[in-house]
Amino acid sequence: MSFKVIDPLEFKGNPFRTMQEGVLVTSRAGDTINTMTVGWGGFGCFWGRQVVFMAVRPERYTFQLLEQADNFSVSLMPGDKGMAEIVEFLGTVSGRDRDKIRESGLTLVQEEGVPCFKEAETVFICKKLANPPIHEQDILPGHQIVETWYGGGFHHLFIGEILRVLVSPC
């Protein structure tokens, strides 16, 4: 199966709903490829460019690969129950310790040298623009964000320019 290329402005997904469904970020550093489930992020315009942004903790194995890579993919997976279980697995098991991509049963493909998944409904091929850290002092006072979400480390906000949008022909 090959993907159809569309202009980012043709993407029909709801940006709020999209980030609540099965989203995987996949990156390569040398011969090492890893993926993880993205829970926090979005789409927008930054520095006059169409971008994807997502929060990733430095403790995550994928963080190391994203830091080293120039490009990465963001795959929007189908919302069926079986895929939801796979997406949950990919978000709870570390690729540092296991070959979780192989174990997931997903088909890894390369688009312009960037790893992504054949089963994805939509794939964003992105060029990393920045990955600034989010520090506790950056979170506005009075919000319970720190108490609710942070018992460990804080995230970095990876920002990637969308180079291509690929959609499944199905």
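(the above was protein one; protein two follows)
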Amino acid sequence: MSLVPRCLLVLALLAPLLVQAAPAPWYYWRSLVDGQRVCAQTSPGPGWERDSAAYEGPGCQPRRKVLIVPMR
């Protein structure tokens, strides 16, 4: 096996490790017409503005807090 096919094989095997997708963050969106708020990952359409910072949990839920208790 020559060098070029080996390099292509290694590249094909390592490519999934380099390409990692993350879920889109959730935001509250406010209607410019009536002020109604909805939770969505993308804009519901024209006439909506983002009304909050990004949430990492699904459905605009804040990240769960983990309590760490030190051991003695």
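Reviewer note on protein two: Residues 22-62 form one domain.
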